[in-house]
Amino acid sequence: MLALLSLSGCGYHLRGAQDFPQALQHTYVMGASLTLHEQFRKALRNADGQLTAAPEEAKLIINILAEQVSQQVLSLSARGRSNELELFYRVEYELLAADKQVLMPRQRLEVKREYYNNQQDIIAKANEEAVIREEMRHSAVRLIIDRARIVLAGHRH
Asked: Which of 11, 39, 96, 136 could form a disulfide with 89 if both were Cys (CB 3.0 to 4.6 A apart)?
């Protein structure tokens, strides 16, 4: 317990724990898929923030303009099946203040991952692909929140 208190006193934070600007404490996410919306909810909850139910309650609005998941085959087996895949997750978004003023105009974010598609264990690979896609959404949310933090810090000065 003493070690944990001393670590928190020196500025150390557990992985995923972040100090959010006041505006990020009450955020509304508009236009996101259910899975992306859930990733935002988790990320904000981990930082003692929350997603608001309505844009009027928020200090920051993250407007998801487009969201796309795709894949590309990188290599084929001798039988013509995909051995290696590259997964893409693309999000286009903008950041708005509570009064709908644009804080950050439309931005495009892309997260890529490669993985080996073992044709001998198709069920396990389908589960692995779902986990990878979830991690990609999580990475996109972290990047959007980090960019929002930077934009908000610039608007305070």
From this structure: 136
This prediction has a pTM of 0.78
For residues 67 and 33, the answer to whether their CB atoms sit within 8 Å is yes
CATH of the domain at 99: 3.30.160.150
- What residues does 70 pair with on adjacent strands? 88
DSSP one-letter string for 44-72? HHHTT-EE-SSGGG-SEEEEEEEEEEEEE
Continuous segment of H or E residues that includes residue 95: strand 82-97
Q: Report how many domains make up the chain.
A: 1
Distance of CA 116 to the CA centre of its chain: 24
Q: Which structural domain, as residue segments, surrounds residue 28?
A: 18-156
Distance CA 96, CA 62 (A): 6
In whole angstroms, what is the distance from residue 25 CA to residue 49 CA? 4
**How many CB atoms are located within 10 Å of the residue 148 CB?**
21
Q: Which of 17-21, 48-52, 89-93, 131-135 has the highest mean pLDDT?
A: 89-93
- Per-residue pLDDT, averaged over 93-104, amounts to 95
